[in-house]
C-alpha cells in the first residue's frame, strides 16, 4: 500500500469510521467478558455540537476505546433528551413563523408538529459526534420520549405515588413567564443586578399620617394585602391595629405585627404580597391574609392591574413609578443591587407564583445516595473537591417540583373524575385508571376521565437513564440490565451534579438497590483565553465542526485534552488544536521515515541494540505512569505522558539512534524491533487519536478485520530497568552538551568530534555507542587530567573536553569567553551581595533564599568551567 507524503485527515476519517461501523466494532452484547459501560449524558434533541460536548465526548471515547483494547466488553450507550422547555420553545417559534399560534392548536396537533420537528432536526448532534470519532453502540441509541422510555417514567411515577412519595400541593413555585411553566429550584440561576429601591408613602386610614415602605418591585403594590411591622420596633407601636391604604388602587389593608420583619432593612415596614413572594405567602397564611395574584401566565398584568392590564411587568414598573411620583406617593428612589432569579433555559426573570403542582418527597430518598458518596464511597467523584458541593446539596435537599405546564413530554398519569381537587386517581393507563375510579364510583365512564394536562420535568426521565436504557424499569430482571448495570464511569459537567448525577444515584438505589455507576469524572467548563465561559451571545465559541475541518478530529481531540485537567476549566485556544495537528504530522512523518528505510540481513549495531532496549524500558516506565493517571482520571496527564514518550523518546531519540547512515540499509533485527515498538505506541495513542493510528496500523502490514487496531491488545508493562533509563538520561545530557557546543561554535553535525572524559562516572559503557552515533563522535576516551586547546562542559560531576583546534577562530573564542566570564563574575557578585545581607537572609522566604544560593553555586561552577576553557586556549 503506497504511503501518501502527507497525513490528510479528510481522506482518512470517513473511510475508517465507515470501516469500524461496517465491521460492527462498536456494538456490544452480553458475554463472558468483564463489561465496561458508559451511558452518554444525553444532549438535548435540539442541540448541535459545541465545545463542551467535544470535550465531554472525547473523554468518554478515550475511556471506551481503552477499555476495548484492554479486552473488556465495551458498551457506550448514546441517546438524546427530549428537553421539554427548549424543544417546545423551538416548535412554538417555528409555528409562529408559519402564522400558527400554539393556543389555537389541540394537544394532539401540537405534538404532531413537535414530532415532525424532532424527526427533522433531532439527533443532528449524534451524527456530529461521529465526525469526532465517537465509538458509541449506535444500535442502542435511545431517546427519552421513546415508547419504552416513556413507559418507564410513567411506571416510576405511579410507583412513587403509591409509596406516598409523590403528592399534589398548592405551593409558591418558580414561574418562567416565557416558557409559561414552573421550574424546580435547581433550574433557577441567581444573578446580581442593578435595580432601584422605591420608597412609597401609604396613607393611614382615618388620619393625615403616612407610613413609608421600601420595595424593589413597585408594580406588586397592586397585590398588597397587608403592611407588617416588627412588634419590637417602637417607631411603629402607634400603628398597631390600624389600617393603611394602598396607593393608586385604594385598597384598605390591615397593619399586622411579626418578628419576621427586619427593622434594619429599608424603613422597617414591609408590604405583604402573598401571591408574589414565598416569605409573604408564609406571612399571609400565618395571619390569614387575602391572596391577590396580579399577573397572567406571561407576566403581563391581569384585571387586578387596573389601567395597566395587559402590559408587561417591566413596562409597568417604569410607568407606575412615574404615576406614583406624579401623585406624591414616591418619596425617593435609591440604587440597589439585589439577586434576581432567572430561568436556566429561557433566561427570563422568574416570577414567584402560587400554583397547584406535583412534588416528589426527597429527604428519605436522598439518604442512600448521600451515604454512597460520602461514607461508603461506592460512588467516587473525580476530583474529590466536589464531595463537599454534593454534601451541601444533598443535606439541604427540598421536595422536587416535577410538573411542567407544557405539552412536550410524558403527560402526568393522573386522571380526574370529579369537581374536587382530590377527585383523581393515578394509574399507568387510562384503562387502569377507570378500574380504580369504578371502585369508588361505578357510574363513571372512560369519557368522564380527564388526564392532568401537565407533563413531567425532563430530569424526571433522565434520572432513570442508566436503568431505562437497558430496559431495567419495565423488565427489572432482563439480560442486558443484569449484565451492564451498574455502569462503570460517568463523564459529565459539575453544573449538573445535582440536576442529574445525584438524582441518578437516588433512583439507582431506589430501583436497583445499588449504585448506577462507580466513578463520576467531572470535567471543567470550556472557556476562552480571557477566562470567559463560551457562549453564542458572546460570540467566543468556535464552530466545532469547522475545527475538525481545519485541524482534523485527532488534532482537535488532542488539543482539547492537553489542557483539560479533571475538574478544572479548559482555557481553549485554537493553537492547541494546531499543536494536536502538528503532533499527528510528526507521527506520520516518523512512520514514513521508518518505512522508507531499506532493510538488509546485516549485523545489528551496538547503538541500535542498546537504544531499543532503552526504549522498551522507557515504554514500560511510561505505561506504569499512564495506568496511574487513568486510575485517578487524569486523562490529560496520561495523554501528556504518551505525547512526550512518542515525540521526545521515540521520534527524537530512538529513531535517531537506529537510523542508518545516508543511503545505507538498516539491519532487519532493528527494523522489526522499531516496527513492533511503533505498534505499541499506536496502541497507546489510539484512544486519543483513533483515525491517524488506525491508518498507520493498516499501512504497517496487511490486516484482517480481526487484526484492526481498534480491537488490538493494550500494551503490558514489563519490569522497568531503572538503571538503563538512568544511564541513558546521563548519555542524553552528554549528547546535549555536544550539541550545544556545535550550535554555539557553528560546528556542522557532519563534522566528527573527539570527546574526552575526566572523572567519568555514572554513564555505563553500553551508552558509549549511542554517544558516538548520535553526537557524531569519532573518538571517546577517558583522561586523567584536563586537556589543553579544548572546550569543556560539565554533566553532573563529570567534565568533558572537545578539542576544537582548526574548528573555530581561537582568538575570537578567547574574546567570547572573557566577555562571558566578566558577565558571570558580575552576576555572582550581585547574588553574593544579597546573600551577605543578613536582613534579606533572615526575612525572605526560605524558598527564595534557596533559589539565590543555587544561582550562586551555578555561577561559581560556570566560572570554573570558563576559566579552564580559557586556560586551555591561551
Provide a quick synopsis of the model.
By secondary structure, the chain is an alpha/beta fold. α19 packs antiparallel against α20 (635-658) and α23 packs parallel to α24 (768-774).
- H/I helix tally: 27
Q: How large a portion of the residues is in β-strands, by DSSP E? A: 15-25%
Total domain count: 4
The rounded distance between the terminal residues' Cα atoms is: 61 Å
Task: Return the structural class.
Answer: alpha/beta
Give the rounded overall mean pLDDT: 90
Task: Please write out the topology.
Layout: H1 9-22, E1 35-39, H2 51-69, E2 73-77, E3 79-80, H3 84-97, H4 107-121, H5 124-132, E4 142-143, H6 147-162, E5 166-176, E6 181-183, E7 188-204, E8 210-215, E9 226-229, E10 243-245, E11 252-257, E12 269-272, H7 278-286, H8 313-326, E13 330-343, E14 351-360, H9 363-374, E15 380-382, H10 386-395, E16 400-401, E17 403-404, E18 414-416, E19 424-426, H11 430-438, E20 450-451, E21 455-456, H12 459-462, H13 465-468, H14 479-484, E22 487-492, H15 497-511, E23 517-522, E24 526-527, H16 544-551, H17 553-561, E25 570-571, H18 574-595, E26 599-600, H19 606-631, H20 635-658, E27 666-667, H21 668-685, H22 690-700, H23 722-745, E28 753-758, H24 768-774, E29 777-783, E30 790-795, E31 798-803, H25 810-835, H26 838-843, H27 846-873
Parallel strand pairs: 1-2, 3-4, 9-11, 15-23, 22-23, 24-25, 26-27, 28-29
Antiparallel strand pairs: 5-6, 5-14, 7-8, 7-10, 7-13, 9-12, 10-11, 14-16, 17-21, 18-19, 18-20, 28-31, 30-31
Helix pairs in contact: 1-22, 3-4, 9-10, 9-15, 16-17, 17-18, 18-20, 19-20, 19-21, 19-23, 19-24, 20-21, 21-22, 23-24, 25-27
Amino acid at each position: 500500500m503506497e504511503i501518501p507524503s502527507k497525513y490528510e485527515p479528510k481522506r482518512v476519517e470517513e473511510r475508517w469510521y465507515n470501516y469500524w461501523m461496517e465491521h460492527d466494532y462498536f456494538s456490544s452484547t452480553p458475554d463472558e467478558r468483564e463489561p465496561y459501560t458508559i451511558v452518554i449524558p444525553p444532549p438535548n434533541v435540539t442541540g448541535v455540537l459545541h465545545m463542551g460536548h467535544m470535550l465531554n465526548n472525547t473523554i468518554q471515547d478515550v475511556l471506551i476505546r481503552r477499555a476495548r483494547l484492554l479486552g473488556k466488553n465495551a458498551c457506550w450507550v448514546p441517546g438524546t433528551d427530549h428537553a421539554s422547555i427548549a424543544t417546545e420553545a423551538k416548535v412554538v417559534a417555528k409555528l409562529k413563523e408559519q402564522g400558527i399560534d400554539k393556543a389555537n392548536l389541540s394537544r394532539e396537533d401540537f405534538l404532531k408538529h413537535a414530532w415532525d420537528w424532532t424527526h427533522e432536526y433531532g439527533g443532528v448532534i449524534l451524527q456530529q459526534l461521529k465526525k469526532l470519532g465517537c465509538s458509541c453502540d449506535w444500535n442502542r441509541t435511545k431517546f427519552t420520549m421513546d415508547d419504552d422510555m416513556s413507559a418507564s417514567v410513567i411506571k416510576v411515577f405511579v410507583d412513587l405515588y403509591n409509596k406516598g412519595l409523590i403528592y399534589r400541593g398548592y405551593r409558591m413555585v418558580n414561574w418562567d413567564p416565557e416558557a409559561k411553566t414552573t421550574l424546580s429550584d435547581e433550574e433557577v440561576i441567581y444573578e446580581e443586578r442593578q435595580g432601584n429601591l422605591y420608597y412609597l408613602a401609604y396613607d393611614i386610614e382615618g388620619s393625615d399620617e403616612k407610613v413609608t415602605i421600601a420595595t424593589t418591585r413597585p408594580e406588586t403594590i397592586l397585590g398588597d394585602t397587608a403592611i407588617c411591622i416588627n412588634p419590637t420596633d417602637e417607631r411603629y407601636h402607634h400603628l398597631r391595629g390600624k389600617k393603611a391604604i394602598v396607593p393608586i388602587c385604594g385598597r384598605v389593608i390591615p397593619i399586622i405585627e411579626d418578628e419576621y420583619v427586619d427593622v434594619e432593612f429599608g424603613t422597617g415596614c414591609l408590604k405583604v404580597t402573598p401571591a408574589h413572594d414565598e416569605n409573604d405567602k408564609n406571612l399571609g397564611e400565618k395571619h390569614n391574609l387575602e391572596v391577590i395574584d396580579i399577573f397572567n401566565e406571561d407576566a403581563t398584568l391581569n384585571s387586578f392591574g387596573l389601567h395597566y392590564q395587559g402590559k408587561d411587568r417591566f413596562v409597568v414598573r417604569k410607568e407606575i413609578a412615574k404615576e406614583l411620583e406624579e401623585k406624591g406617593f414616591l418619596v425617593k428612589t435609591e440604587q440597589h443591587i439585589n439577586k434576581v432569579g432567572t430561568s436556566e433555559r429561557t433566561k427570563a426573570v422568574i416570577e414567584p407564583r402560587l400554583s397547584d403542582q406535583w412534588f416528589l418527597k426527597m429527604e428519605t430518598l436522598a439518604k442512600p445516595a448521600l451515604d454512597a458518596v460520602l461514607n461508603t464511597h461506592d460512588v467516587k467523584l473525580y476530583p474529590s473537591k466536589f464531595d463537599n458541593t454534593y454534601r451541601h446539596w444533598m443535606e439541604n435537599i427540598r421536595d422536587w417540583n416535577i410538573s411542567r405546564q407544557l405539552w412536550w413530554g410524558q403527560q402526568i398519569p393522573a386522571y380526574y373524575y370529579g369537581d374536587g381537587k382530590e377527585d383523581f386517581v393515578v394509574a399507568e393507563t387510562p384503562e387502569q385508571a377507570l378500574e380504580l375510579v369504578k371502585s369508588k364510583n361505578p357510574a363513571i365512564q372512560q369519557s368522564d376521565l380527564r388526564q392532568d394536562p401537565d407533563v413531567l420535568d425532563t430530569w424526571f426521565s433522565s434520572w432513570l437513564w442508566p436503568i431505562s436504557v437497558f430496559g431495567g424499569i419495565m423488565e427489572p430482571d432482563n439480560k442486558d440490565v443484569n449484565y451492564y448495570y451498574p455502569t462503570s464511569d460517568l463523564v459529565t459537567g459539575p453544573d449538573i451534579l445535582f440536576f442529574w448525577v445525584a438524582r441518578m444515584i437516588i433512583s439507582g438505589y431506589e430501583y436497583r438497590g445499588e449504585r448506577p455507576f462507580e466513578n463520576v469524572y467531572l470535567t471543567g467548563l470550556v472557556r476562552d483565553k480571557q477566562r470567559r465561559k463560551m457562549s453564542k451571545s458572546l460570540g467566543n465559541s468556535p464552530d466545532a465542526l469547522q475545527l475538525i475541518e481545519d485541524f482534523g478530529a485527532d488534532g482537535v481531540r488532542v488539543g482539547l485534552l492537553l489542557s483539560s485537567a479533571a475538574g478544572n476549566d479548559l482555557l481553549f485556544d485554537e493553537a492547541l488544536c494546531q499543536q494536536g495537528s502538528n503532533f499527528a504530522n510528526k507521527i506520520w512523518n516518523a512512520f514514513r521515515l521508518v518505512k522508507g528505510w531499506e532493510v538488509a540481513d546485516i549485523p545489528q549495531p551496538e547503538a541500535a541494540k542498546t537504544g531499543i532496549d532503552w526504549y522498551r524500558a522507557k515504554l514500560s516506565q511510561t505505561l506504569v505512569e499512564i495506568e496511574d493517571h487513568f486510575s485517578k482520571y487524569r486523562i490529560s496527564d496520561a495523554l501528556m505522558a504518551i505525547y512526550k514518550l512518542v515525540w521526545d523518546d521515540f521520534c527524537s531519540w530512538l529513531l535517531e539512534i537506529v537510523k542508518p547512515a545516508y543511503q545505507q540499509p538498516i539491519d532487519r533485527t532493528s527494523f522489526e524491533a522499531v516496527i513492533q515498538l511503533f505498534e505499541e505506541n499506536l496502541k497507546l495513542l489510539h484512544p486519543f487519536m483513533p483515525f491517524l493510528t488506525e491508518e498507520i496500523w493498516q499501512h504497517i502490514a496487511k490486516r484482517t478485520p480481526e487484526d484492526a487496531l481498534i480491537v488490538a491488545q493494550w500494551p503490558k508493562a514489563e519490569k522497568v530497568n531503572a538503571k538503563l533509563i538512568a544511564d541513558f538520561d546521563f548519555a542524553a545530557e552528554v549528547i546535549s552538551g555536544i550539541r550545544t557546543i556545535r550550535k554555539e561554535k557553528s560546528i556542522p553535525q557532519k563534522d566528527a568530534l573527539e570527546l574526552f572524559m575526566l572523572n567519568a562516572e555514572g554513564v555505563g559503557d553500553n551508552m558509549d555507542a549511542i554517544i558516538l552515533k548520535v553526537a557524531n563522535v569519532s573518538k571517546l576516551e577517558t583522561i586523567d587530567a584536563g586537556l589543553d586547546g579544548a572546550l569543556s562542559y560539565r554533566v553532573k560531576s563529570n567534565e568533558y573536553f572537545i578539542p576544537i583546534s582548526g574548528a573555530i577562530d581561537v582568538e575570537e573564542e578567547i574574546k567570547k569567553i572573557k566577555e562571558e566570564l566578566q558577565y558571570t563574575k558580575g552576576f555572582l557578585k550581585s547574588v553574593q551581595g544579597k546573600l551577605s545581607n543578613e536582613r534579606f537572609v533572615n526575612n525572605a522566604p526560605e524558598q527564595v533564599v534557596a533559589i539565590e544560593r543555587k544561582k550562586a553555586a551555578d555561577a561559581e561552577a560556570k566560572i570554573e568551567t570558563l576559566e579552564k576553557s580559557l586556560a586551555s586556549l591561551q
